[in-house]
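Researcher: I'm preparing a figure for a lab meeting and need a structural model of a single chain. I don't have an experimental structure, so a prediction will have to do for now. The sequence is pasted below. Please return the structure as tokens so I can convert it later.
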Amino acid sequence: MPELTATENVALPLLFDRHGRQESLNTARSWLERLNAADCGDQRPGTLSGGQAQRVAMARALVTGPRVVFADEPTGALDSLAGEQLMDELTHTARADGITLVIVTHDNRVAAYADRELVSRDGELAAEVAA
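Model: Understood. Here is the structure written out token by token.
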């Protein structure tokens, strides 16, 4: 939501779930810190770099403590270095918190982060690769 700060955007799912405002903002700040995005917490989405925006989106996806996160081309708008940093943070956080992470990507470098890889070709399962 462009009129909210990054912290407020991350806190929004908690607020919708009827958590208190201060608790929601504190939890959002904690997630931004964990994902190396604490420095952009007071910025509005339009002022964020691509990497910052992806980290904020990732914090928003993780803030409610989901068991599964679906990430469709999570590094699509990032340069290779920012994409690598994001994937390091995302996979580390998912493993540390016991979250199942399902990634859809065309990028072999992103797919290499997976513990298990399913390859689809022409709408059908073409291969399964275990790490």
